[in-house]
Amino acid sequence: MKNIVSEQSRVYLPIAESDQVYPVGRVFCVGRNYAEHSKEMGDDPERDPPFFFVKDASSVVPSAFSEVTHITYPMATSQFEYEVELVVALGRGGRSLSLQQAGEAVLGYAVGLDMTRRDLQAQAKKKGRPWEVGKSFDESAPISPILLKTDVLVDSISKGEIGLKVNNELKQISKIANLTWSIEEVICKLSEVFELRPGDLIMTGTPENVGAVVVGDEMQAWVEHLGEIKVSVTG
């Protein structure tokens, strides 16, 4: 009998202002990397080092700046929550990177949403189980096109705002400067436990005031100097 193996289609993100695309490898996420969000989730931001979890690449939904992206309300949850995040795309990899090497590994940046089935995540946390059921599922990572790194963009983003609205009502607002662990520090720490590769995305954490959305809601997520994506929840 002949074995039939179906290959999952690879996900690609557009690179802004070009005809190039970025093939997505792994999607690493940083937990609780803004002090106020750490407090809202019951942690001590002064004590806890960064920790990581992974979304499957199939979670990524390319989201254009100029049009609304539609995602489906997921199964098995009644608490579907948004988390706006700055996303870093790596163009180089390596192990145990220095701060300088970490900065050099960055290819570009994007705006992303770490959509979460919070009730399922809470159940997993309570039982000491992995978070994948609450974090890694279809359409849980809408991400904008990647803007390639320049010195001007790096400086602008570091001073810029990050925020999210639901139905034009402001929900999340902060500054990238409020990251507990900087982008370079996050990459360094991550490279101590994983050998990083070109194609890896890093979702760098969300500010405080995460909350739920329902069918019909539209989210606007932005990082100043990168742009804004609009994501609508359908049934």
From TrEMBL:
It comes from the Bacteria. InterPro entries: Fumarylacetoacetase-like_C (IPR011234), Fumarylacetoacetase_C_sf (IPR036663). Residues 27-233 form the Fumarylacetoacetase-like C-terminal domain. Signal peptide: none annotated. Keywords: Hydrolase, Metal-binding, Pyruvate. Gene3D superfamilies: Fumarylacetoacetase-like, C-terminal domain. GO terms for molecular function: acetylpyruvate hydrolase activity; metal ion binding. This is Fumarylpyruvate hydrolase. It comes from Marinomonas rhizomae. The lineage of its organism: Bacteria, Pseudomonadati, Pseudomonadota, Gammaproteobacteria, Oceanospirillales.
